[in-house]
Amino acid sequence: MRRTSASLVAGALVAALAWASSPSSPAVALDPSAGVADLTQDINQILSDSRLTIARAGVVVKSAQTGEDLYATDAGKLLTPASNTKLFTSTAAVETLGLDYRFPTTVLNAGRKLGSVLTGDLVLRGTGDPTMLAEDYDALAKEVAAAGIKLVTGKLVADDTWFDGQRLGNDWAWDDETAYYAAPISALTASPDTDYDAGSVIVAVAPEGGKVKVTTTPDTDYLKIVNKATVGSETDVLIERQHGTRTVVITGTVAGSYQEWVAVDDPTAYASSLFRASLAAHGVKVLGPTVTGATPAGARKLAEHESMTLGELLVPFMKLSNNIHAEILTKAMGREVANQGTWAAGLKVSTDFARANGVQVINMRDGSGLSRRDGFSPSSIVQLLSAVRSKPWFSTWYDSLPIAGNSERFVGGTLRSRMANTPAANNVRGKTGSLTGVTALSGYVTSADGEPLIFSVMLNQYLSGSPKDIEDKIAIRLAQFSRATPVDAPAQLRAADNATAGDLECSWTKPVEC
Fold first, then answer.
1. Residue 447 has what DSSP assignment?
2. Which of 71, 218, 236, 415 is the most exposed place for a label (fewest CB within 10 A)?
3. Residue 274 pLDDT > 50
């Protein structure tokens, strides 16, 4: 994991201190009405934006210190949350699995070893580790070779039975199938990078010698590349996997280096192909084919790799809003609680956790928020964010939330380019959410009086470009909220006018600025 220097996070520390104390701390005696009327007026003004005339907007602001509702509009209405769904998935996962939870990936001997020959099958068994890289599979292969095995007479068995065989989530759009943010879910998978985009391959193009050269990360022949691109004066290229196949077709013109993250069709086959290639590189020959199946009884462990802890995984998961992490954790929860690695079992765990913590309006169809049938109310999100403050794991989870205006990628995350140089910078910690026609921002902010606030802003069914700047204006206004001191609200609202806005999570489109 990447680490940040103290100087990068020092600005966030001041805001974090307000959340370090228990929510049961004695409330400071404050005038309950001073300043609240102005806050209400200002938020109403922000929400009067013409882009929201035909849209739906739900907003709730609550004092974490007094429990007082400071602002609410359509607080109980069911709205599409997009990636705000990850607030529920992540908290349920930490509660259910624990911060020390790890995903093991194991190689087992399902035959008899006679000298350098393994008579029987070699098994690769996964439990969903989204952080497995090609180098990790190579390390497992190296251990097999180090055990003295040079020949496997049987098959390479890929055991992905820890999860069920349903690869794509409920209600996911068919045209997202090849997008890395909607990659298939399997107990055996691989990532091409340390963002841990499991189930995808980076396909890169560049001009070389008058032709377009294609490379992949990791280096793999799993995908069939059909290169129809030509060198041109500008880069206007499409890299796309054909529906339901392993074939990636590249068309257009290439003037410079360019790359795309492409979801594979079958993560189990992809991961086992990487492992098989590594076995060969280390001098281990497998005579039989690669098949899928359960590990036979009595198989003996040859090698094992364990992932980072869940507490560490929270950082790339939440900072970069990684959909695949959310879905893997959902199935892992189902396996842990009901011995069923399914969406149904995992979503029941998340829903039960939410309801046990006072959440009323909730409809979860997946763990990431890709489903447009996911639904929460702003008040339900605020209730969850309030309830988890008393959990022993809260500080670790809170630190995984993106921080507004902090340019360090694994600190600011999806908020790194928003609200910079405003009172919300290094103060607001929240979860973003974006789909076409949907945007949301929910989280925590410390007021100008040092009062911790909890908020949720959900905007649905707009036809304009993304109105993320409206979320930013509300968050900035909350950072300036004072119960007694007048606030120059118009000046603060103008500060948000240059907020970066896009129709999707910036990490989903992988731009340089995210």
1. -
2. 236
3. yes
| Number of domains composing the chain | 3
83 is catalytic: yes
* 43-86 confidence digits (pLDDT tens): 999 999 999 999 999 999 999 999 999 999 999 999 999 999 99
Q: Which is catalytic among the residues 62, 86, 319, 348?
A: 86
Q: 0.85 cut: is pTM over it?
A: yes
- Of 430, 418, 428, residue with least CA distance to 480: 428
Q: Are residues 155 and 231 in the same domain?
A: no
* pLDDT tens per residue, range 351-389: 999 999 999 888 999 999 999 999 999 999 999 999 999
Q: How far is 467 from 19, CA to CA, in rounded Å?
A: 28
- Of 63, 83, 272, 377, which residue is the catalytic one? 83
Q: Is 293 inside a domain boundary?
A: yes
Q: How far is CA 306 from CA 27, 40, 181, 218, 455, in A?
A: 44, 50, 24, 20, 37
Cβ proximity of 150 and 185 under 8 Å: no
Question: Pick the catalytic residue: 321, 371, 400, 507?
Answer: 321
For residue 474, the cross-strand partners are none
Indicate whether 225 belongs to any domain.
yes
For the segment 424-432, the average pLDDT, to the nearest whole number, is: 98
Assess if residue 191 is contained within a domain: no
What phi and psi, each to the nearest 5 degrees, are found at residue 187? -75, -15
Quick check: is 321 catalytic? Answer: yes
**Euclidean distance between CA atoms 96 and 408, whole angstroms:** 30
- Report the relative pairing of strands 211-217 and 200-208 from DSSP bridges: antiparallel
The CB density around residue 286, as the number of other CB atoms within 10 Å, is 20
Question: Are 332 and 383 in a shared domain?
Answer: yes
Per the structure, the complete domain to which residue 113 belongs is given by: 104-165+267-307
Rg (CA), the chain: 25
* DSSP at 357: T
Same domain, 366 and 239: no
Q: Quick one: three-class SS letters along 159-203?
A: ECCCCCCCCCCCCCCHHHCCEHHHCCCCCCCCECCCCCCCCEEEE
Active site residue 25: no
Cα separation, 137 vs 132, whole angstroms:
7
